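User: Continuing from earlier, I have the next pair ready.

Assistant: Great, send them over.

User: Here they are, in order.

Assistant: Folding the first of the pair now:
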Amino acid sequence: MNILVYLEDRNGQIRKPSLEAIGAAHSMGGNISAAIISADTSAIATQAKELNLAAIYTASDSRLANYSPRATGCALAEIAKQAKADVILIGATGRGKDLAPRLAIRLEAGYVPDVTAFATENGEIIAIHPVYAGKAQMNVRVTTPIKVYSTRPNLWKASKDAPAGQPEVTNVNVSFEDSDFKERTKELVLAQGKLDVAEADIIVSGGRGMRGPENWQLIENLAAAFGAATGASRAVVDAGWRPHSEQVGQTGKTVSPTLYVAVGISGAVQHLAGMSSSKTIVAINKDENAPIFSLADYGLVGDAFEILPALTEEIKKLRSH
């Protein structure tokens, strides 16, 4: 089985979800190679040589300085053909969720999005995919010769294993059409100094129970003590308290951190769909019957405005030792 992993980069570095996708590939076994598509692939290829890969394929064009859905899909399809890939893995980032189905169409491949685990049965790959807002898991067997999967971040160990040997780097020539670049990312705006909630290992999220944006510093203080990202429920974002980039849930971002702290969040099914795969969930709510407690590993029933300052101080003490 030949597995190809798309390596997404940002600011000259391979993104963590791509490293995790390599980890997922190793859990499946087979011959693992990587695809790098950018205006200048040299820096990323140098980093990829330090990973446990059999081969590295690159495609470059000056017009790929910003992400272009059509052009990147075209290049990745060509690389997949040259690598004779049976399986293509793409981290389920914002870009990955856009790119993976485009690639599947080009390759006439079966596609399973947002995979949370892989298993094998009679030599066939079984992809585990959450359905019904995370209330159930579907075991999906793809029967097409080529298979495309996007992998949910934070569920596999980021692969940084040393290579058994030096992987060969192959530059792939791709014949782009001008029309391939009609759609391009104009500018990527990131919140300065803030962790991306979709990739954070710890998240502190707040809901309407915080009563207003003027109280959000309590969420931010606890997040700072943990070294965590801040998240928010849809109700909070719709009210204009927090930006959409922090929204966790069915219409926001799907997260799988090691620790998820939900403060003043009742636990509507739309929110649970975005964070139910978190490894440990802590809920803080004054309503002991809030649905969030049915999912939480630990629950604190009480006033968040009393609990958060005390919890923040205790976390600071623990982390100072």
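And the other member of the pair:
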Amino acid sequence: MLVGVVDFEHTHIFRPSMLMGNRKEHRPSEKALIRVWSAINRIFIGKLSRYRGIDGKDVAKAMINAAKKQSVKVKIYQWKEMNDLL
């Protein structure tokens, strides 16, 4: 299978670790995990900060702000870079 290359002017890749926040679906296990993640979120510092949880609404805001200031051709956003955009 031949896959064509798409040459976008800018490509933004967002890689959140744990998406926090409420959902409409009833997911009790996920809600419990979010509570635990919220409690341990603060210990993820330095290189581990990429594993910090982030609210889905904040990811959306970061995406909008990233689209407004396009500086490099390809940019990958972990927690710190997304948080810097808020």
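Worth noting for the second one:
The radius of gyration is 16 Å. The beta strands are 11-14, 19-20, 54-55, 74-77.
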